Amino acid sequence: MRLLLLSIIFFLASCGGAIEMKDVQAKDGPDSCFPPGISGQFRSWRSQAAIVVLLDTSGVWVSAVRAMYVDGIRSVVGVWLNRKLIIFDISPQDAEVPVYYRTGYVIETGDSSVRVRTDPEDKCEWKRIKARSTLEVEA
């Protein structure tokens, strides 16, 4: 048991907790639903950090991937759930810029907070929310 635990720790340490975004995209093609004015071009940018995060769905936690994409001085952050982009931050350095969220997967629960739907709808509609702290995810 101790050997198994050490093996898992060494494996995670060697991976650095990061994953490749190509692992997140669907085998039959990447998600093509993006916020208004955003193209999928950011997916070709260098992925500086991609980590598995936990999102709340009314008490049940689901795994998602939070990835930062960098192209020169520009950067964006996307949160992927089941190979679908559900949260998108066009300006992660500026807390005043509202964050996009996909309404079929994420809903506002009041007081400018949001949570992931337990029964997601695969529709391509986006809203923005000012309260960035409500979109923080558990690492």
Briefly characterize the structure.
The chain is mainly beta and 139 residues long. The protein has one helix at 2-15; strands at residues 46-57, 60-71, 74-81, 84-89, 99-102, 106-110, 113-116, 126-129.
Please describe what this structure looks like.
With 139 residues, the chain is mainly beta. The chain has one domain. Helices cover 10% and strands 40% of the residues. It contains 1 helix and 8 strands. The strands form 2 sheets. Strands 1-2-3-4-5-8 form a 6-stranded antiparallel sheet, with no helix packed on it. The protein has a two-stranded antiparallel sheet with strand order 6-7. A hairpin with a 2-residue loop joins strand 1 and strand 2. It is globular and about 40 Å long. The two termini are 25 Å apart.
Strands, helices and their partners?
Elements: H1 2-15, E1 46-57, E2 60-71, E3 74-81, E4 84-89, E5 99-102, E6 106-110, E7 113-116, E8 126-129
Antiparallel strand pairs: 1-2, 2-3, 3-4, 4-5, 5-8, 6-7
Average pLDDT, rounded to a whole number, is 74
Order of helices and strands: HEEEEEEEE
Strand content: 35-45%
Distance between the termini: 25 Å
The coarse silhouette is globular
The radius of gyration computed from the alpha-carbon positions, rounded to a whole number of angstroms, is 16 Å
Spans where pLDDT lies below 50 across 5 or more residues: 1-29
Determine the structural class based on helices, strands and strand pairing.
mainly beta
Number of domains: 1
Biggest sheet record? 6 strands, antiparallel
Number of helices: 1
